[in-house]
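Title: [Solved] Peptidase M16 3D structure

Original question kept below for reference.
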Amino acid sequence: MGCDNSKKMDGAAETEETEFKLDYEKFTLDNGLEVILHVDKSDPIVAVATVMHVGSNREKPGKTGFAHFFEHMSFNDSENVPVGANRKMIPEWGGSRNGGTWSDGTIYYEVVPTDAFEKILWIDSDRFGYMLNTVTKEALEREKQVVKNEKRQRVDNAPYGYTDEIIRKNLYPDGHPYSWTVIGALPDLQAATLEDVKEFYREYYGASNASLVIAGDIDITETKELVQKWFGEIPSGPEVSALSPMPVKLAETKSLYFKDNFAKLPELRMVFPTVENYNKDSYALQVLGQLLSGSKKSALYKTIVEEKKLAPNVGSYQNSSELAGEFIIRVRANEGVKLDEVKVAIDEGLQNFETNGFTDNELTRIKAELETQVYQSVATVLNKAFQLVQDNEFAGDPEQTIKDTEIIKNLTREDIMNVYEKYLNGANYVMTSVIPKDTPELAVSNATEATVWIEEVGAMAANEEVSQGAEAVYDKTPSKFDRSEPDYRAAPLLKMPDVWTGSLDNGMNLYGIENNELPLVNFEISITGGHSLDPAGKAGVASLMADLMNEGTKTKTAAELEEAIGLLGSSIYISSGSEEIAISGSTLARNFDATMKLVEEMILEPRWDETEFNRLKQELITSLKGREANPTAIAAINFNKLVYGANHPYGIPTNGTLQTAEHITLEDVKAFYNNLSPKAASFHVVGSVAKSKVENSLSSLNKNWNGEQIAIPNNPISENEIAGNLYFIDVPDAKQSVLYIGNIALSANDPDAKKLDFANEILGGGSSGRLFQTLRIGKGYTYGAYSRIPNRMDKAAFTISSSVRANATLPSLEIIEEMVTDYGPGFTEEDVELTKNKIVKANTRAFESFGAKLGMLSNISKYNKPLNYVDKEQALLAEMSLEDFKATINKYMNEKDMVYLVVGDKKTQLNEVKKLGKNVIELDIYGNKI
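Solution (posted by the thread starter after getting help):
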């Protein structure tokens, strides 16, 4: 990659245009597979990404969701890889892998340490070209359950989950490839047959219908040879004819409403048909979306949020796909607001935009922010692989996104107004009013009720049990190469980044990692305290104060501050967590000094604007009300309340509750501000900036920011008698039950903290963990199941969590109970070695991104870890014996010490969970006993 040809951008302080590119080499195999190679030797890792040019747009009515379903099927077995190994082996090599499907394509991707490079080519090529013979009816039925659970979790059990389906059915005519959702309909999935799978594979999974990118620590010449070996024999497949753009026009505006079982807030969307990806108008529409709602000066924001106070925010954006596009305006309103008022406000905002347009600075700000986004989008080898592979397959040019950036930089005022007139002004659209089920009066007047197919909990098939089944019997596909698993290569050298440290006279400590791969800098000031210092009865003060500090300074209004940051291509955001206040952001390296001046202004000269405070308080209340619609949030909040008690900061959400928020005043926020002291602060910085430059840029902050040491209160965790109890919270008609199981364990400062982290790896550490392998792969009860222990200054809770099919609630609980009970006694020497191998190899990927490096610096400063703490933790792991693992499991993961929480449909599941034999206690959604 290279950056040169710099010149000044008009109107932006210190910003400049740069020519940016990713170096790559592209070639095509005889079977038609297009291959792109990119060398990046900054870390000993390799990313592999394959795009198949087939998405839900190739499906047929009655067989919807099939492209996504086939993606799931592809992760099962293949001819030359052991049964079940595809999902387990890659994490055991220290890698990660996943896939995704959208309307136009399917992507498969992996990142592994360099020693597993050829292994990933082996497993990836086998999935691509040698999986069809291994598909069995049992595997088909098992994966159906997984995909159905994914739909239940993401769509059926989520507020506003059906909105996409309603829009697609009404925006696109019957039979249009975008008239159904990517995930499809449950009846269609249930009806899928083995022959459907084979037909889909034969039609679309040929080598000539794909692009492959390999990026990272590779040798070009050798990699070409390996690609030819592993991928060269995959059949080309039949020619897949390209689909031409299929934009739509609406003969009339359609207004629909839907009574949502989970939503607590009314939401309005307006969707205008536009143009496909890479169309010249799509770039101007992207910028139009930002100009309409992307800043405090934007027309829709000023009308809807600032003037009429109908909603906490508004979004507008262009969504382009291969065949067509949509421009979307979306407003989730405050509780009880009639969407007729929102619609009137949108119309007024659009009229104001049409009349008054936008300033030159607004357009310049968007272009400056875009430059930073381009660099951030290629900050890891996997992100580079994503960009190269998708641009190659859908635009025919791996550099198309970079060229798009240049197009956007050159857009004019006339370009923006032309697309506004062409696609929005006076155009027909689809409008959806999604409202809480008991408040149909909030919908836009005269809207027609939308219909969707909804699964009934009580009608779920009781016999949806699946199994591994017998292996398929087949003749192996002949090959001129030995397609058995290749050996590991030379072990990569794990090298922690060099960390520099320092301190300022005002007491703030400095921690940095200089990295010059990209002209970017990421930073964070972490100030101990946060939510843990909230006054009694006023939880959420720290969070509200942090939010208000983003809304202007003494000399700048909120809009002026936002513009000043944006013109630098920077971001600065102040937030509150359980244990700290964070001032975090990113900037182009050349604008680091100017960005730090704005950081100083935000810290030392908050505006304390009463109008902004009132708006933010209303936004908080709206957010807290919306949270009541989310079964997963209900479970997480109440689990913490159970194990920590109602008075411990960890037992109360960081942004408070509806009850605490009501009592917070502007004076409370101002008083809390006194807790921000440099003596409790650490500055973390990663990127293209030297220590001397950092110290110089912070000299003014060092001089002007002073304060005393802040005392952090000791909040004892109340002793409670909840171990062994099962708590149940009713969410009527929930298609899934959310499970939280665990109890208080230990602090990140405890000498046993890493031991527990290591000991959890086999049970719930990702997709290769036993929870995931059993509940998802073995039984098809869930989309995912994990266990973890977070890092906390105070004691953290060891937690097992999953969302399972409603009528699989009891068997899932029984499996978890048995698995945890047997975990310690059944832990073996083989498990010890597997744990050590996985963690050591995964560390090769642990510090690649700027965010990961910042996290490393945070660990060093917050928990007083040595600069080489990862080396020390690896040494600790190497020394752990089987007895050490067993002792850790018995001490912190004892099933008898755990509390169980289930959030689900009481009507069908309460009596079922009572069969587990535990003491069952009912709670309401706020954690009060019923």
